[in-house]
Amino acid sequence: MDRFSQKIGLITGGSEGIGLAVAQRLIAEGAQVYVCGRRREVLDAAKASAGDALHVRELDVLDSEGLSGLIDEIYTEHSRLDFLVNNAMHVGWSAIHETSIEGFRQDFKVNVDAAFVSTQAALRHMTSQGSGSILNVASINGLLAIDNMAAYSASKAALIHFSKAAAMECAASGVRVNVIAPGVIASASNLAALGSIPGYTEAVAGGVPMNRLGEPEEVAAAAAFLLSDEASYITATCLSVDGGKASQLVVPPPPAA
Asked: What is the predicted pLDDT for the residue at 253?
């Protein structure tokens, strides 16, 4: 397929995991993709894996001027901006009574504030050209509650509703804004975290209705659809890619007879 032939866009946090999988999928379908990240060695590895259609920039999304400037740079160089994927994220892990206000705000700064800045910059160009697609990567944690992740869950819930509000503002201008909410995905970072506790990966996978973790490429396939013209009448939608987990009612098994 060549759904993204001649298309240009940016993926924040796109040098590894879900972000890189999305970049590779869009490139395979004809896109030129810019990604930004903080670690040069990871960016270089991403570039080596994806080739000349991947353009890497070393940038912290908390640098608001730098992030807006990168989006302006892409538009100036190519005279268009077709898509934006806000994938950069920060995960805090602590009980509420042990979380500082600074720690709580850090998740919001990366997961919400940076998405606001990039969306604002992108909309200036997309609304003027009358087209464009924005995809924000939230999480199942934005839909369901879990202990010790209050900041992350709250920030992802905020991102979901920010996306819907943004979609309402720009729908008449031909710009779509959607959200994807992955479940537990078998990215390198997730596998490392789960694998640090013996048997935990298998336990988490067993708690998913499909009895396995998701793959980054499966999230990328869903992302590519929402970003493509095939989803031209879809906006303000949150798509769960979680093996059915967000719809699962968990009850204890009946007592043994």
From this structure: 80
Measured CA to CA, the distance from residue 19 to residue 22 in angstroms comes to: 5
The 10s digit of each residue's pLDDT in 43-66 is 999 999 999 999 999 999 999 999
**Domains of the chain, residue spans:** 8-237
Residues 6+ apart with CB under 8 A from 38: 58, 59, 60
pLDDT in tens, 105-137: 999 999 999 999 999 999 999 999 999 999 999
* CATH code of the domain occupying 8-237: 3.40.50.720
User: What is the rounded distance in angstroms from the CA atom of residue 38 to the CA atom of residue 56?
Assistant: 10
Ramachandran assignment for 148, one of left (phi > 0), alpha (psi -120 to 50 degrees), beta (any other): left
Which active-site residues does the annotation give?
A: 152
